Amino acid sequence: MDRRRMTAIGVLVAAAGLTAAVTVPSFAGEEARRAAPATDGVAPEVLDAMGRDLSLTRDQAVKRLRTERWAAGTATRLRAELGDGYGGSWLSADGATLTVAVADAAGEARVKAAGAVPKRVARGVAELDAVKSRLDAAGGAASPDIAGWYVDVTDNAVVVVARPGAEADGRRFAAAAGSKTAMVRVRTADEAPRPLFDVRGGDAFFINNAGRCSVGFSVVGGFVTAGHCGRPGDRTAGSNRVAQGTFAASSFPGDDWAFVRVNGDWTPQGVVNDFNGGTVAVNGSTEAPVGASICRSGSTTGTHCGLVQAKNATVNYPEGTVTGLTRANVCAEPGDSGGAWLSGDQAQGVTSGGSGDCTRGGVTFFQPVNEILQRNNLTLVTAGGQPAPTQPPAGGGETAPPATVPPTPPAGDTECAGQVSRSGRIAAGRVQVQPDGRFYRVPGGTQEACLAAPDGVRVTLELQRFTNGAFRTVARATSADGMARLTAEGPAGAYRYRVTGLSGSGEYTLAFSAR
Fold this sequence. Notes:
Radius of gyration: 24 Å
Shape: globular
Distance between the termini: 53 Å
Largest sheet: 7 strands, antiparallel
Structural class: alpha+beta
Helix content: 10-25%
């Protein structure tokens, strides 16, 4: 099955203060920030969970996440450059070294130049994926004693997982699918993956007043979760038993994803419950590489962390085969199904199933979130690293004074002019809120904005208005030839701009005015 990947940058729905706060900084808050250890914008709850499960200090966790962000971008670029010679990539156990497998000598120099370590292998990952695809096609003939199969880039082979004593079944299955012996390894493990579905009831969300699963990630209009949790038309209720929404789309087996469309009483927020009295912000969905640290949140067992072991794994559930999953050495239990997987502040997927539990440990599989977004044309809701008060501060601030909208510059002009101007630095997958991470008030009318960025930097500019407890996008423009412009008519209220990096990195200037 074709598993196309894409990065989805979604709508920001976190609220923040502006008006007078734009020009009057909080010195007490600044001193507190300076005294706190650097976290690179990663929620402290994530760092605490990584410390508990990966035995890392906060500084070590921040350093690891920083390396993993670099590794994700480097691996993606090298895969495109190396083509059929790309054999996969992975991080070392300590997360410090990125290894890239190459099937020919010409690729080694490219890998070294990128700062990674090359490893010569017999075959490219495309060839291994082709072998796995043949196994997927023959999946219906797999013995119940075969737990699943996946591409192991570190071993340059396809691994078939069989229960102890069933190794011969694994070899026969691989041979029947036309796989070459040298390209397939049969590994034994006492695994019996099953969908983590719990019909006992509990918190998180309920399906038809009976089964319980966990919310994955907020998307515009609802949230995504596991497909085995419900079918189109099934109704959901929140943990408070208040009517919540309806399954609008679902796929299981084959895939394991679903989209629940919520009613007007529920507002999707770009955060994940940390099960420690707080939330973790979701700021994008850049896919982490094999070997990266990853944390899972679910309504049964809370938050647990581990490492990504393999991608594009196939799992042979009793209900049927599911392909394209990611495998991680993180525990989970029934009721955690559908829950969120995060690498730092980047959404990774929703819990599908696993083997073991959180007492003795286990392995868990998740459906990659970017595929769910792509297949269903959904937009991830993100938090942008801002706290989310219930409403903007009332009073004590300044409204944007009347201003004359600047004339439209001639074609090719790279300058932006406006009553208010702010600058920042943006990179692909990053989000910034202007002005200065806060909001401003206007009496209503026409608003115009212009953003100028260097060649090679592409961004989306959004104007957002605070409505029903959250900032919602009312106008959007994507930059072309270094410029993004938007105009919007709107009522009086609190507004802000959101800048999302699509490609490249560099400084930008945003100018805006209202009349």
